[in-house]
């Protein structure tokens, strides 16, 4: 993830790894319940038993028989890592709370170190192999068919036994990100119970495993086990896998789309076969005859030059989120032998084309359907125990859309099929690639076998994900580009698997002798910098080019979330337990953030005040970063916030916390990424309007007011303007002398109105009399420190304000009206929904939050109350809800409410006549 280690090149000669009986491929089925598998697949999900070989001293030939004893084994559903199985069984206290993780045997590695690069401790229970065992019935009707046993992910090695027969051993099965398909026709017993036994082994420091870098601790089992789905698939003699349809638009009109269809076919027999591959793509029939030699695997293609019907007029085009619709088409291919279907596969795809190029300044620019797009994204993390939670992922996608982000970056975290299906359906763009900071980038220590595992892993993943329209790029490295021989091997795989999207050597700016410059940068920062940094920096992480990972630093969870993740005696003041929930290596505490808070805003002496200031800092920091990249497009071409989410409860690097609670950073991002947005520039006091959609916005009016700390108006201007599609335009400059009027802090209030005088965007800034002076000479990969911090301490003594508020609901939508009848500014007003006990409800997203109200000003805010949360707060048809409103300089306001059913049966929020102030 972050740039800490330099690797030296080594010469590795690539050799081919041949695994008999194993087909490294992935399949795509149309049914969500069987994502990644064809209709004939049976998921082997429940009814597993798991136990350590140190306890059972098992023999695969015996454990894979029906009479093998499993008393005392852990019950499990797969996919699940070993530790996830134990946690689900109640073996350990919640490892995500406090330092409970350190109490689990084997978690004795030094605090903050990257466990991936260390050996298992001598007393670790995960030094042993761990067995996964399951019995399952196979119908007698399957007799005579070809049966395939598929593993979607094994970390890291395994011996696999079925009905007393060894299917594969740990020399063949190694690699966390490989998928495996075994022809088990001769081992399966149709009409009987079958028993599968898999002994898994954790990765070593010289394996291409699963790595948590410095994001969070690593679980003591290193996520060993069956982390991907296991399924049994049937076919005839010839199997079809990984169907894909790619698009090319001959010209910018997009009125004609040329489709190319491909699929992998495999002859499982010991003799040649002749048949026909046929099907439909977007409703268009295609067919061709195919001859396969004994045991042959081959890619079959349908090109528009040979199949003119694949030139489609007036296609339904797939567009990224917020740029248009995302229609998905169906591709179905079947292989016929003697007129009978041997196998059939279906996948969904979008008619869209992705390209990338280097601008005149050498910056990588992405185009979707020949239109440039400013990448605004964030880095994704799975759950630390790799638990698959589709409902949670769906909610996270909703929150990503709510922030107006368009891209998610995966660094070495190969997500589930469900993840990619959601991205396809909702129009999100995905950048995928390998991880940094462990053996994945220790190329000087690689052996030929390491390279074989790496290329086999790449083959597996590309075949699995290549058909998804959401994927736009693959990064062959993260912090460093691979050496020439490795990059060449990777590029060969990408060519052979027909990867249809961009390929970038790494997430860093280092060029290679094979592919040249990357066009991207990874120069930080990852820790706190003042908001002006993003516009004044011209050398490091400032708003130019494509920054693949960067951040204004820590993101403090809400007080309610802190209560969930920290024991009561460690919630305040901050201590080592807080540090444990920061990051690793150079991020084991949040002192840079805390020091900046004290220097800029003054010391926070209570937990509540600290959290309040921290949320405002996160709001201000995230807004400034995304706004700077928006103003400078397309001199800036992309920015990936590090990160979007966390693998466990953390105080750093997220836009919403582990409990899906949206706080300051979330709303700062949402504000900055508005599709039609007005913003202020710290560097030159200019006001810009940024349009992020491919449609012009004429007849707008930009309005600005500047006030001193006492709300004396220093400047006012209103100007009409037309804004072109996907553009950034300066509305006007605020004169420099306005900010030379004596004041400790200035307030800049902006509005953007449409032709009907309705507000499209509003923004409010607190600007220091003197910006932070950065100590550029002391810049590190973490951040650029402040030589002299800006002074915002006057905000701590703002004149007291007060607000009035009412709330009502319509279905699951809560409407809040707030007004400021006082003569003082109401600063950083934050609303939340609480249950009757006063606990903040998670997953509540407001239309706007952390807002300001000038004297006499009023606003309407709305919040979506998810139906499952609403049903939980109902008690016998009647229950309480509270809307709590806080701000820097006002007493909290609580609106007590009730939830009662409407006549239709849907719940209704009713505000009581009284308020608690």
Write the layout of secondary structure elements.
Blueprint: E1 42-43, E2 48-52, H1 53-56, H2 60-63, E3 74-76, E4 80-81, H3 82-88, E5 130-137, E6 146-151, E7 154-155, E8 157-162, E9 165-168, E10 180-183, E11 193-201, E12 225-226, E13 230-235, E14 238-248, E15 256-267, E16 273-281, E17 284-292, E18 297-302, E19 311-313, E20 329-337, E21 340-349, E22 354-358, E23 364-368, E24 371-373, E25 375-380, H4 390-402, E26 407-410, H5 417-426, E27 429-433, H6 448-465, E28 471-475, H7 484-496, E29 502-504, H8 533-536, E30 545-550, H9 559-565, H10 576-580, H11 591-601, H12 607-631, E31 636-641, H13 664-672, E32 676-680, E33 686-691, E34 697-707, E35 713-723, E36 727-733, E37 745-753, E38 759-768, E39 773-774, E40 786-788, E41 804-810, E42 813-819, E43 826-835, E44 845-846, E45 851-853, E46 858-864, H14 867-873, E47 879-887, E48 890-901, E49 907-911
Parallel strand pairs: 25-26, 25-31, 26-27, 27-28, 28-29, 30-31
Antiparallel strand pairs: 1-13, 2-3, 2-5, 4-12, 5-11, 6-10, 6-13, 7-12, 8-9, 8-11, 14-15, 15-18, 15-19, 16-17, 16-20, 20-21, 22-23, 23-24, 32-33, 33-36, 34-35, 34-37, 37-38, 39-40, 41-42, 42-46, 43-45, 43-47, 44-46, 47-48, 48-49
Account of the protein in words:
With 917 residues, the protein is α+β, with helices and mostly antiparallel strands. Among the domains are: 238-349, Sandwich (Immunoglobulin-like), CATH 2.60.40.10; 680-769, Immunoglobulins (Immunoglobulin-like); 798-911, Immunoglobulin-like (Sandwich). The protein is 15% helix and 33% strand. The chain has 14 helices and 49 strands. The protein has a seven-stranded parallel β-sheet with strand order 29-28-27-26-25-31-30, covered by helices on one side. Strands 3-2-5-11-8-9 form a six-stranded antiparallel β-sheet. Strands 45-43-47-48-49 form a five-stranded antiparallel β-sheet, covered by helices on one side. A hairpin with a 7-residue loop joins strand 14 and strand 15 (256-267). The relative contact order is 0.09.
């Amino acid at each position: 993830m972050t740039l800490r280690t330099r690797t030296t090149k080594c010469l590795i000669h690539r050799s081919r790894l041949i695994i008999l009986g194993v087909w490294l491929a992935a399949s795509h089925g149309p049914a969500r319940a069987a994502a990644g598998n064809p209709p004939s697949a049976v998921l082997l999900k429940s009814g597993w038993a798991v136990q350590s070989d140190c306890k059972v001293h098992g023999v695969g030939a015996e454990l894979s028989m029906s009479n093998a004893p499993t008393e005392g084994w852990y019950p499990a559903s797969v996919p699940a890592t070993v530790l996830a199985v134990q946690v689900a069984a109640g073996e350990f206290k919640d490892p995500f709370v406090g330092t409970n993780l350190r109490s689990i045997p084997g978690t004795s590695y030094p605090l903050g170190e990257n466990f991936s690069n260390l050996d298992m401790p001598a007393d670790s229970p995960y030094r042993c192999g761990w067995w996964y065992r399951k019995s399952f019935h196979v119908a007698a009707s399957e007799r005579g068919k070809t049966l395939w046993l598929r593993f979607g992910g094994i970390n890291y090695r395994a011996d696999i036994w079925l009905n007393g027969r060894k299917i594969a051993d740990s020399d063949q099965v190694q690699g966390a990100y490989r998928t495996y398909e075994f022809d088990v026709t001769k081992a399966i017993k149709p009409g009987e119970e079958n028993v599968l036994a898999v002994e898994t082994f954790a990765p070593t420091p010289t394996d291409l495993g699963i790595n948590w870098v410095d994001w969070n601790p690593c679980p003591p089992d290193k996520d060993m086990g069956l982390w991907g789905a296991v399924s049994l698939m049937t076919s005839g003699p010839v199997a079809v896998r990984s169907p894909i349809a790619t698009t090319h638009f001959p010209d910018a009109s997009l009125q004609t789309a040329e489709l190319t269809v491909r699929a992998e076919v495999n002859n499982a027999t010991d003799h040649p076969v002749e048949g026909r591959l046929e099907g439909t793509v977007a409703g268009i029939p295609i067919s061709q005859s195919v001859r396969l030699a004994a045991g042959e695997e081959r890619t079959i293609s349908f090109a528009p030059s040979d199949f003119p019907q694949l030139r489609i007029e007036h296609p339904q085009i797939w567009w990224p989120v917020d740029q248009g619709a995302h229609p998905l088409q169906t591709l179905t291919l079947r292989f016929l032998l003697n007129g009978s279907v041997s196998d059939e596969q279906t996948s969904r795809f979008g008619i869209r084309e992705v390209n990338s190029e280097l601008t005149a300044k050498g910056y990588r620019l992405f185009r979707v359907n020949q239109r440039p797009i400013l990448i605004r994204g964030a880095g994704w993390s799975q759950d630390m125990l790799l638990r698959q939670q589709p409902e949670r992922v769906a909610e996270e996608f909703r929150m990503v859309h709510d922030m107006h982000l368009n891209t998610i970056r995966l660094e070495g975290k190969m997500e589930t099929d469900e993840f990619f299906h959601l991205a396809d359906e909702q129009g999100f763009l995905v950048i995928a690639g390998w991880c940094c900071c462990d053996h994945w980038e220790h190329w000087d220590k690689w052996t030929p076998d390491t390279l074989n595992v790496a290329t086999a892993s790449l083959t597996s993943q590309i075949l699995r994900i290549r058909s998804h329209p959401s994927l736009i790029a693959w990064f062959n490295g993260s912090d460093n580009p691979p050496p020439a021989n490795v990059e060449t091997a990777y590029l060969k795989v990408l060519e052979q698997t027909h990867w249809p999207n961009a390929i970038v050597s790494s997430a860093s700016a280092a060029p290679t002798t094979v592919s040249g410059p990357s066009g991207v940068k990874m120069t930080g920062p990852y820790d706190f910098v003042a908001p002006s940094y993003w516009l004044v920096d011209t050398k490091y992480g400032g708003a130019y080019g494509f920054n693949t990972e960067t951040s204004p630093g820590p993101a403090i969870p809400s007080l309610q979330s802190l209560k969930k993740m920290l024991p009561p005696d460690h919630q305040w003041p901050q201590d080592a337990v807080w540090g444990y929930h920061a990051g690793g290596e150079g991020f084991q505490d949040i002192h840079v953030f805390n020091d900046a808070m004290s220097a800029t805003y003054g010391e926070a002496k209570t937990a509540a005040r600290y959290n309040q200031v921290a949320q405002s800092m996160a709001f201000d920091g995230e807004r400034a970063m995304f706004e700077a990249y928006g103003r400078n497009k397309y001199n800036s071409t992309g920015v990936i916030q590090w990160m979007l989410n966390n693998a466990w409860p953390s105080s750093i690097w997220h836009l919403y916390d582990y409990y899906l609670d949206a706080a300051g950073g979330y709303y700062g991002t949402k504000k900055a990424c508005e599709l039609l947005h007005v913003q202020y520039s710290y560097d030159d006091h200019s006001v810009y309007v940024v349009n992020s959609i491919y449609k012009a916005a004429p007849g707008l009016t930009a309005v600005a007011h500047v006030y001193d700390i006492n709300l004396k108006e220093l400047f006012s201007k209103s100007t009409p303007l037309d804004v072109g599609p996907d553009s950034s335009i300066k509305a006007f400059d605020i004169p420099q002398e306005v900010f030379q009027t004596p004041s400790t802090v200035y307030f800049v209030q902006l509005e953007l109105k449409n032709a009907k005088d309705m507000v499209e965007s509003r923004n409010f800034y607190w600007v220091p009399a003197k910006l932070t002076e950065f100590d550029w000479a002391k810049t590190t990969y973490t951040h650029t420190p402040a030589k002299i911090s800006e002074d915002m301490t006057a905000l701590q003594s703002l004149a007291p304000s007060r607000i009035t508020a009412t709330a009502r609901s319509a279905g699951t939508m809560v409407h809040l009206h707030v007004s400021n009848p006082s003569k003082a500014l109401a600063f950083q007003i934050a609303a939340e929904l609480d249950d009757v006990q006063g606990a903040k409800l998670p997953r509540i997203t407001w239309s706007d939050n952390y807002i300001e109200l000038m004297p006499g000003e009023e606003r309407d805010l709305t919040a979506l109350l998810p139906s499952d949360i609403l049903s939980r707060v109902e008690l016998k048809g009647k229950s309480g809800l509270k809307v709590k409103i806080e701000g820097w300089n006002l007493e909290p306001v609580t609106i007590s409410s009730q939830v009662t059913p409407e006549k239709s049966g849907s719940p209704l929020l009713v505000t009581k006549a009284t308020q608690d102030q």
